[in-house]
Amino acid sequence: MLILWDIDQTLIDLAVADRRMWSEICASLLDVAPQPIDPEPGCTIRSILHQGLLRHGASDAQAACLLPEALAAEVSWLSDRDRLRRKGRLIDGAEQALREMAHTPGVIQTVLTGNQRDSARLKLDAFGLSDYLSLEFGAYGSDSDHRAALVGIARERVSERYGSGEAEVAVLVGDSVRDVMAARESATPIIAVSSGKTSPSELRTAGADAVLRTLNDHDGFRAALSLVGRRPARSTRSGDLARPDRPGRDEESPASFNA
Ligand SMILES: [Mg+2]
């Protein structure tokens, strides 16, 4: 089984620092005062910085021209490990879940993230998570701006190394509606965790196969994995999308399944 982990708000919380960093980078490149940037959860980095540059007064062409410099500035900012550890935190239960899966036979785990590759590694290194993941198979915001396309990229990387059987059963883990939409579009099951800004009911309504309040729910995570990890690839016909939510399920149970 291939587990594809989102990073931000699923494993690590650097949200405030990220937003401030992007704002400072864009302002500095355009020599203007920083403006707040607050992208929707799950956006990819090139889109975030392009929009950030526009927000700071760049024309579309100027933003495209400055984007490589902005991306490089982000990697440079994230290279300060002490700063990352001061400004960020591990999401509850994330390290334990990664550790457990790293020791589970038959599991390959890596990341599927809107971060560029170097930034993803710097964030994961800072919080001691890289060793649990096979980052060479990951798919990154530097591979594509389209999150759903990243699923195929990660599967292909695993298949090239181990053969297609290893990537046949894949599961995403993420915190945002964009993660869920990427899963739906790529016909891949997803375990959604409401450790970011998105509520359990929003994640369920978007079509998540299983929703957990926290990765500290280790029994719930294992149960979700065993349920969705058995499923064959799904059709993405519109009729198969978001199933109706049962009222009050948020209160009923910490973990819920759209079975
Ligand atoms: Mg996220």
Can you give a write-up of this model?
Helices cover 46% and strands 10% of the residues. It is of the alpha/beta class and 259 residues long. The strands form two sheets. A six-stranded mixed sheet has the order 4-1-5-6-7-8, with helices on both faces. The protein has eleven helices and eight strands. The protein folds into two domains: 2-13 and 89-257, HAD superfamily/HAD-like (Rossmann fold); 15-86. The chain has helices at residues 15-30, 45-55, 60-78, 81-87, 94-102, 117-126, 147-162, 177-185, 200-206, 218-228, 249-252, and strands at residues 2-5, 12-13, 89-90, 108-111, 170-174, 190-193, 210-212, 255-257. Strand 5 (170-174), helix 8 (177-185) and strand 6 (190-193) form a beta-alpha-beta unit. Helix 2 (45-55) crosses helix 3. It binds magnesium ion. Magnesium ion (MG) is lined by residues 6, 8-10, 41-42, 174-176, 196.
List keywords for this structure.
alpha/beta, Rossmann fold, 11 helices, globular, binds magnesium ion
